[in-house]
Write a structure and sequence with these properties.
This protein has about 240 residues and is an alpha+beta fold. It folds into three domains: about 1-55; about 90-170, K homology (KH) domain (GMP Synthetase, Chain A, domain 3), CATH 3.30.300; about 175-240, Ribosomal Protein S8, Chain: A, domain 1 (2-Layer Sandwich), CATH 3.30.1370.50. It has seven helices and nine strands, in the order βαββααββααβαβαββ. A three-stranded antiparallel beta sheet has the order 1-3-2. It starts with a strand and ends with a strand.
Amino acid sequence: MTTYSGNTIEEAVNKGLLDLSLTKENVDIKVITQPKSGFLGFGKRQAEVEITPHKPANPVSENNSEPEYQREEEPTDSNSDEDETKLSPQEISNELESYLTDVLSGMGFEFKLEPNLQNHHSLSINIVTAEDKQSILIGRHGRTINALQGLAQIYVNRLGANNLTIEIDAADYRARRSEALVQLAEKTARNAIANGKPVYLNPMPSFERKQIHNALADNNHVMTYSTGRDPHRVIVVAPK
C-alpha cells in the first residue's frame, strides 16, 4: 500500500492509479486526510489517500476464469459546505485555533492561545505572548487585534457558524478599551450638551460603536446615531 496526495481526493487517487498503472476497479482506496482550501492562504491542507492493489480472494481455476476481487465502495469527498455547517461549537473552536495558529506564526509571534467557549453563541480567545510583543499584537488603537478578530469572525462564518460571535483579546486589552470607551462617551456627551452641537467621533468597528450607544442609552440629554459606511462609519452624539 502507498500514499498519494493532491489538491483534491480525485487528484490524489489519479496520481496513485497512474503510478501503479491500475484502475479504480483493481485497488482499495482509503482517504487518510480530507483537503482544506484554507482562508487567505492559511490553513490549507492537501488530500491524502492510501491505495492498495487488490489480491485475488480465490486461486484461478477452470470453473473460475477470472480472479475474484474484494471491492470497497469509492470514498466520497465529505469536505463539502453542507458537512462543514454541521460542525459543533467545539469543533469550530478547534478549527479557529488552527487557523489563528497559522496566521500568528506567519506574523512571527511566539504565543499561546486560551480559548473560552462560553456558550453556543460566544467564543473568546485570549492570545498570550511576550510582554514586549503585546503592543505590536494589539496595534495602534487596536487595529491589529481588531483585524485579527474580523478575520476570525469571517472564518467561522465560512464554516457555517454565523450565530457564533468571536472575541480576540490580548493583555486584557478589551476590558481596558471598554473602560476607555465609556469615558469617551461621557466626555463627548458633556461637550455636546455644553456646545449645543452634535459631536462626531472617529471611525470605529461596530462592536465598539455599540458600546458607545449602550453607555449613553440612559442619558436624557443626548441621543446617539451612526452615519457613514464601514470602515469609515462614525457615531454622532447630539443634544436632544
